[in-house]
Structures are given as C-alpha cells and as structure tokens.
C-alpha cells in the first residue's frame, strides 16, 4: 500500500519536502501507518516566510469586503466537505465520528466569526475633537502571523487562528501538529480553493527547530499557540524576547462542582461526558469533580454509569470514547494512573487494561475514576490528558471555590445547581477564565473570545470574538486638521502642546 505523504504548502502550492526526516502518522485504533509527515528544512521554512512576507504587500491592501467574501466561500466549502474532514480527524486523532463532526461545527463557528470582519475591524472617530480637528483610529494588519497548534483539535485550533488573522489583512504560516495533519492540510486546501491568494496562507511541518526559526524571523510579527504548558511557555517567552505579539493557550485542570440541588441525571451524565469524551484529550475537559454536601451520596451512581461507557474505535458510532492519540500518550497516562493507586487514591473504575475486540494494537484506555483524591497527588496536580476523573468532596460551595482557586490553572470550570444565588456567587468568586453554569465544557461560541486565565494562558488577548481582531491588528491614531484653500492664519509659532 502506498503511504500518503503530507505536503508543505508554500506560496499557494503543495510542495513535497526535500527533508531527510519523515515521521509516521498512525491510526490510534490500529497502529497502521496512514501517512508520513516531513520535518521541513531550514530553506523550506525560510521560503514560507518569504512567501508570506511578499504576499502581505498586496493582501494588506485588499478591501475588507473582498476578504470577507473569501471567508464566506471558505465557510461554504467546509460545510460541503464536513463529513470528509470529520473522517480524517477520526482516522488520525482517534476521537469518535460524532465528536469529530462536532469539531467541524465548532470550526465553522470560528470561520463565521471571521466573516464578520467588516463589523469587527472598525475604527473610532471623534469629529471636532479639538477646534477644526478630527481624531480617528485605523486598525491595521500586523504583517506575517504564525500559528502553532496541538493534535487534539486539528481543525478547530487552526480555525481559531488563520481565518481571523487573514481576514484582518495579515498573511499566515501554520505549524500544525505532526500527529494528525491530514485534516488540517485538507482544511487549508479548502481555504485556498475559496480564493485565498498564493503566499497568504502557508503550512510548515516540524518540531522545535522549525518553531524556533519561525518565531525568531524578523518578518514574523505575531505568534499564536495552543497546546501544552511547557511548550506554550517556551513559545511565548521566545516570541516576547524577539519583540513579537504573542498569545499562548495552555494546559488546564478543570473542576466541575456538583451541588446537591442540581438535576441529578443531567449532572452525572454531563460530568461523565466531559471527563471521558475524546478520551479526555481536551484542555477544557473536566478531569476533577467536587461533590458538595449530600451530592457525595451520588458517587456510587457516577461509578455505575462510568462502567457502562463504551470504548471502541472512533469509526464505531455508538462508542463513547476512542483511543488516545499514541502509544507514548497511553504510556504516560497509565504511569499517572498507577501513581494515583500508589499515592493512596481509591480506584473505583479501572480502565488501565482496556481491551477492544478486533483492535488488539489500539491505544485504548478505559474510563478511570478515583475517589479519596487529595490535592497533592500527581493525578490532581498534573494534567493527565486521558480518560481519568478525580473525585473530591466539600462540605460547602465556599470550600469548593477555595479548592479551585488554589489550583494554579484557570482554563475552565463549571457548576451544576438549580440555585441562582449559588450560580451568581460561583461565577463572581471563582478565579477561572471560562465558567459554565449547568454547562460542562464552557467553551464560548466563537463570537465571544476564548478567555482562559492564570496558569492556562499567557498574553492579554484570546482567540475568537472581538479580542481576536485586537490581537491581529495594531491601532494607528490619526489627528487631522484641514484648512480652507486660501487660509492665511499660521504666521504665529505655537510652542504649547494644547489643542482647543
């Protein structure tokens, strides 16, 4: 069987890399090699940068309306090819097809937000801000942008980046994860088919050396990252050192608080879906629940329902969760689960020896649930990024809020309750960027910004919403005064700064 080779995209063309280093892309359910992805050479990275830099000269002058129309075309093509994109996600990531289809839908939301660029990129004006003087602002594109994305959302994360960056008049270089590149490449191909000109959108593959070269280039003006905390911290610090605008959305340890007045069935089902969906490989998953007061009595039912969840390949539509992305990821997850047992947590659901009939080589880890978890255990302090749920207990909502606020991460949290008072208290007192009230995974719709905080985010501005335009543009202020053609005043020298 011929193994597909993932291309680079430079200056609007698919390019076969001249590299000597190719990485295997595996189907996580079978370990079958489904593609090979190149580690781009320094010359290829430089060519992508040059292409983007040259294209900026003309693309930045294209009207808002015409840039918006291309985004509309892109949205239409993605919708037409939704099933193809979802199947590519499942093939290389492993998430279930319904989950992959949901990711395509979330990607469309982000593109649709970019379709609003004629509204979002407006400046401000003060007519007659001083006598005969107008002051106004222009939101201008920055230049070449770079996006670095993780494997777990190979469509949605790029959609958070290049559509708004390009719609704002920038050019772009995308460096996607090498673990699930096929859907990303197809996504970019559709963007080019929609009318994005050569050089405006480029794709480069590779590891740390490629990332560093991109960031250190003088031509690159802004860097957006979504992925792990360790890599994100490096990317952000290096970008800042080289004078780039930077944002990094990073790791998490999200908590879902369940009050005893919550709708029991809804709370339990949403907890399990958010903890184990996508095999826990979401930065907005809920790997920790805090059962408050009498809600702790629901633990046996939570355990019973977790044991009923079905593990299978992503192509099996009735599976609740698929495999994790790689053997290395599985080994790391199992090591952390073992540490939970060794450190004294009570293992109530054990998914460590999960077997799926017909898929002996798959990277499967079943739903795993610990109780009697303390906040100094590795399974609590580290982001497992697998299908593992830690159960803590609290006597009061105040105690639950204190636990969450003591955790260094601030990506997401949620509260399940029927009390408006409790919900209002929680949303105002919890120190987390994204809060759900009876919503298990509180990623806002794309016309609101992604707002993770504290240890989960570096940089002031997030993807999506109005903030995305602030990130991908700079503000130029113009103060203008125009005189009548025969105006004679001006013979006096003024040495003061005032304008009246």
UniProtKB/TrEMBL annotation:
Residues 17-478 form the Aldehyde dehydrogenase domain. InterPro entries: Ald_DH/histidinol_DH, Ald_DH_C, Ald_DH_N, Aldehyde_DH_dom, MeMal-semiAld_DH. The keyword Oxidoreductase applies. Keywords: Oxidoreductase. It comes from the Bacteria. Gene3D superfamilies: Aldehyde Dehydrogenase, Chain A, domain 1 (3.40.605.10), Aldehyde Dehydrogenase, Chain A, domain 2 (3.40.309.10). Belongs to the aldehyde dehydrogenase family. This is Methylmalonate-semialdehyde dehydrogenase (Acylating). It comes from Colwellia marinimaniae.
């Amino acid at each position: 069987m011929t193994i597909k080779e993932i291309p680079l995209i430079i200056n609007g063309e698919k390019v076969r890399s001249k590299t000597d280093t190719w990485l295997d892309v595996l189907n996580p359910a079978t370990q079958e090699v489904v593609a090979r992805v190149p580690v781009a050479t320094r010359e290829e990275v430089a060519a992508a940068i040059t292409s983007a830099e040259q294209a900026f000269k003309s693309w930045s002058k294209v009207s808002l309306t015409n840039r918006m129309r291309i985004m509309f075309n892109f949205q239409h093509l993605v919708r037409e090819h939704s099933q193809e994109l979802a199947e590519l996600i499942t093939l290389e990531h492993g998430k279930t097809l319904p989950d992959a289809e949901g990711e395509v839908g979330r990607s469309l939301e982000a593109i649709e937000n970019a379709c609003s660029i004629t509204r979002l990129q407006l400046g401000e004006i003060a007519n007659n801000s001083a006598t005969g003087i107008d002051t106004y602002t222009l939101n201008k594109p920055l230049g070449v942008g770079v996006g670095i994305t993780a494997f777990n959302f190979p469509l949605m994360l790029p959609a958070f980046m290049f559509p708004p960056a390009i719609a704002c008049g920038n050019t772009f270089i995308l460096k996607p994860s090498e673990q699930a590149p096929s859907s990303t490449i197809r996504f970019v191909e559709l963007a080019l088919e929609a009318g994005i000109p050569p050089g405006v959108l480029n794709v480069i593959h590779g590891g740390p050396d490629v990332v560093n070269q991109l960031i250190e280039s003088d031509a690159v003006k802004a860097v957006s990252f979504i992925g792990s905390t360790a890599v994100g911290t490096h990317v952000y610090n290096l970008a800042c050192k080289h004078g780039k605008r930077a944002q990094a959305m990073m790791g998490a340890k999200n908590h879902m608080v369940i009050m005893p007045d919550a709708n029991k069935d809804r709370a339990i089902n949403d907890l399990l879906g958010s903890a184990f969906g996508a095999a826990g490989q979401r930065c907005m998953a809920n790997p920790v629940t805090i059962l408050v007061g009498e809600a702790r009595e629901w633990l046996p039912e939570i355990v019973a329902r977790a044991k009923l969840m079905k593990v299978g390949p992503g192509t099996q539509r009735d599976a609740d969760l698929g495999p994790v992305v790689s053997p290395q990821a599985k080994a790391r997850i199992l090591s952390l689960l073992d540490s939970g047992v060794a450190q004294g947590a009570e293992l109530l659901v054990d998914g460590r020896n999960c077997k799926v009939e017909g898929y002996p080589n798959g990277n499967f880890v079943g739903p795993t649930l610990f109780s009697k978890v303390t906040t100094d255990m590795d399974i609590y302090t580290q982001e497992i990024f697998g299908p593992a749920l830690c159960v803590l207990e609290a006597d009061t909502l105040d105690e639950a809020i204190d636990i969450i606020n003591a955790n260094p991460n601030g990506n997401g949290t949620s509260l399940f309750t029927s009390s408006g008072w409790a919900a209002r208290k929680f949303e105002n007192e919890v120190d987390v960027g994204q809060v759900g009230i009876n919503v298990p995974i509180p990623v806002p719709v794309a016309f609101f910004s992604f707002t993770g905080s504290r240890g989960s985010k570096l940089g002031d501005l997030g993807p999506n919403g109005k903030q995305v335009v602030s990130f991908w543009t700079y503000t130029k202020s113009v103060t203008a005064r125009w005189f009548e053609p025969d105006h004679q005043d001006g013979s006096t020298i003024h040495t003061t700064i005032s304008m009246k």
